[in-house]
């Protein structure tokens, strides 16, 4: 534990009490939570940092987009705009945020992408538009209790599960562990490919889910190719390159590339990093740049990087996906 977190340990009970009281007020109906007469699915977490929300939203998009008009609604973290924004051909990572722009870039012909820090306001704008969605996916909204989502998916990572963590500022939990009781489904993400059944049972016992909750396990599946807007390359054919990341947890990606025996230098920035012009100038000196799909949404706007910038796609591979799909489709 870092020294500063140890120093802040006395603040933990205060943070715990404040967040617990807030949840109790919502549970008791003292604070208002709005429900909707159509399917609203929330994907979120208790921990700060990367738990795989973006791959999970894309998993839901792929599951639902053929049969339903789907909209995603995100906060649009670190965007340079305010209020409700509907993604269109003029949108970019600065106007709607990197993750929503990723959704729009991949699925613009299939779904509606919107951002609004006020999720109720965002939903009201979506349902008052000409193209009304049939299902709304709330990205990173588990603590946004002003909306009472009909189906809550809680994500927690294999390497840092919420049941072993503590609330901020000493730990990484946004709220007490008891918040997990609001989830309909709990998914343990970023699991090893070869996780055993005994390990799964141990995890489930420590989660101690309610009878109404189901627990699933997922791992990250990486593509065998890297892509740009114009072309692609086989990973096995990559020579020396620079890996550029601005995500919360780089360990799975670095491990994957290292296991492939690839030769690369890693430039690791903070999550949702806004690249400065000096940093872009430095990247101009690189021969080949591999990045994440989220970071690609921020970097692709720089014409000087066009011929050397590629991203590595990922997707969530969920164990017993048929059961999870059935729960979601039954809800919708």
From TrEMBL:
Enzyme Commission identifier(s): 2.7.1.130
Top-tier EC class: transferase
UniProt GO molecular function: ATP binding; lipid-A 4'-kinase activity
Pathway: Glycolipid biosynthesis; lipid IV(A) biosynthesis; lipid IV(A) from (3R)-3-hydroxytetradecanoyl-[acyl-carrier-protein] and UDP-N-acetyl-alpha-D-glucosamine: step 6/6
GO cellular component, one term: plasma membrane
Keyword NAD (UniProt): no
Lineage top rank: taxon: Bacteria
The keyword Manganese belongs to this UniProt entry's keyword annotation: no
Reactions catalysed, as given in the entry: a lipid A disaccharide + ATP = a lipid IVA + ADP + H(+)
GO BP of this protein: lipid A biosynthetic process
Keywords: ATP-binding, Kinase, Lipid A biosynthesis, Lipid biosynthesis, Lipid metabolism, Nucleotide-binding, Transferase
Role description: Transfers the gamma-phosphate of ATP to the 4'-position of a tetraacyldisaccharide 1-phosphate intermediate (termed DS-1-P) to form tetraacyldisaccharide 1,4'-bis-phosphate (lipid IVA).
UniProt record similarity statement: Belongs to the LpxK family.
Name of protein: Tetraacyldisaccharide 4'-kinase
Record lineage: Bacteria, Pseudomonadati, Bacteroidota, Flavobacteriia, Flavobacteriales
